[in-house]
Design goal:
Blueprint (H helix, E strand, L loop, with lengths): L10 E4 L4 E4 L1 H4 L4 E4 L4 E2 L2 E2 L3 H6 L1 H4 L1 E9 L4 E6 L11 E2 L8 E6 L3 E2 L4 E2 L3 E16 L5 E9 L11 E3 L5 E8 L2 H4 L5 E5 H14 L8 E3 L2 E3 L2 H4 L2
Parallel strand pairs: 8-17
Antiparallel strand pairs: 1-2, 2-7, 3-6, 4-5, 6-7, 9-12, 9-14, 10-11, 12-13, 13-16, 14-15, 15-16, 17-18
């Protein structure tokens, strides 16, 4: 996800409705953003940011910011189109506990000054705890939400990206990390918890007069509400 001044990450969570989930602090005051999906050559993902920027007219997909919550640090985007064959990332049926394996993919490898570097960086680690926390950013944003605390490293550009469990289901959204200088605590990373994601998405659906019907990865596999999709 790229705005005029910054970049972040996100995940497609509903392919039929063309919805992407990311952070509030990624989109900020922007009404539209440009979204890129990975492209592949001979089965290998293209990691060079310049490839996407140079081909923005064909690879970039404009998206409108539909909803956002400062306190939950979440935002929902609607794409103009979804690349053929791309499916939405399913939400997990329930939150994960301490010790669960976690994985994220983000854009922390990009250098905004010249769009060099590496995209689609993988980060892995384990969940440490789930707790409610108030985080304050230097720009004045205050987040008061349930977080999935973990030791999966993140950096600028990874914000808004998906955190999935070992079955590939979304359990959190990358958000922020502990201020080591202020607290002395290292390797504390905070992702917005699944419960906040569910609350945010169902709240948006209610305001838009439909029942949230995105995919969920339960014991039986992917599930959706077909009746809601027909609305």
């Amino acid at each position: 996800t790229v705005t005029s001044r910054s970049c972040g990450s996100g995940s497609l969570i509903h392919s039929q409705r063309k919805l992407v989930l990311t952070n509030y602090h990624v989109v900020g005051d922007s009404r539209t953003v440009l979204v890129f999906f990975p492209t592949y050559t001979d089965g290998e993902v293209e990691p060079k940011p310049r490839h996407y920027i140079d081909n923005a007219k064909t690879l970039g997909i404009r998206a409108t910011v539909l909803a956002k919550s400062e306190a939950q640090d979440l935002a929902l985007l609607e794409l103009e189109r979804v690349p053929e064959g791309v499916e939405g990332l399913p939400l997990a049926a329930k939150p994960v506990g301490a010790g669960a394996k976690l994985y994220s993919v983000g854009a922390s490898g990009i250098e905004l000054r010249d769009f060099s570097g590496t995209l689609w960086r993988l980060s892995s680690g384990e969940a440490r705890a789930r707790n409610r926390h108030t985080a304050r950013f230097s720009d004045g944003q205050v987040i008061d939400a349930m977080f999935l605390e973990n030791q999966k490293p993140i950096n600028s550009g990874d914000s808004g990206g998906p955190t999935v469990n070992d079955t590939g289901a979304l359990v959190a959204v990358v958000s922020n990390k502990e201020n080591v200088r202020a607290t002395g605590r290292e390797n504390v990373y905070r992702d917005v918890d699944l419960t906040e994601i569910q609350s945010f998405l169902t709240g948006y659906a209610r305001s838009a007069n439909f029942t949230w019907d995105g995919p969920t990865l339960a014991s039986g596999g992917f599930t959706t509400d077909a009746k809601s999709l027909a609305k």
